[in-house]
Amino acid sequence: MQKERIFEKLDGGRIEYVDRMVEAGEIAWKQHPVYAGVSLKTLIGFEEAGGRFSCLLVKLEPGHEIGEHIHDSQWELHEVVDGNGICIILDKEINYESGVCTVIPDGLKHRVIAGEQGLSLLAKYMPAV
Questions:
Q1: Cα(106)–Cα(117) distance, rounded to whole angstroms?
Q2: pTM score, two decimals?
């Protein structure tokens, strides 16, 4: 029996709210507006959470990256769901593999680089982006 992949389950799962349910599989993937080889799926956006937080699935193709950037007013949480790569925060290099979580406070420069397997993240922002 083939092991089910968590990222695929999240991509095709559902988001439950008190008053409704949203099928994640019906939410469109979008190419990152700046970084080639990076796709985003907004599971919970600014409007759904009243601006308090947002949650995105992020896919980086092998060898691609989200270049150095800063979120001035958002904390960011990366949950590595699949693949491999690295995250560089200031001068610290963090190996990314399934099961790693990284907390990135607001105002810190960081970048993410996918390894040879590509990289899949569940990224959460507080407050929402």
A1: 29
A2: 0.93
Range of the domain at 105: 6-126
CATH number at residue 82: 2.60.120.10
Residues 108-127: pLDDT tens digits? 999 999 999 999 999 999 99
The first and second tokens of residue 60, run together, are 């980086």
CA distance 31 to 26: 16
User: Where are any strands of DSSP class E within 5-91?
Assistant: 14-16, 21-23, 30-31, 38-44, 54-60, 65-69, 75-89
Number of alpha carbons in the 13 Å side-chain half-sphere of residue 57: 22
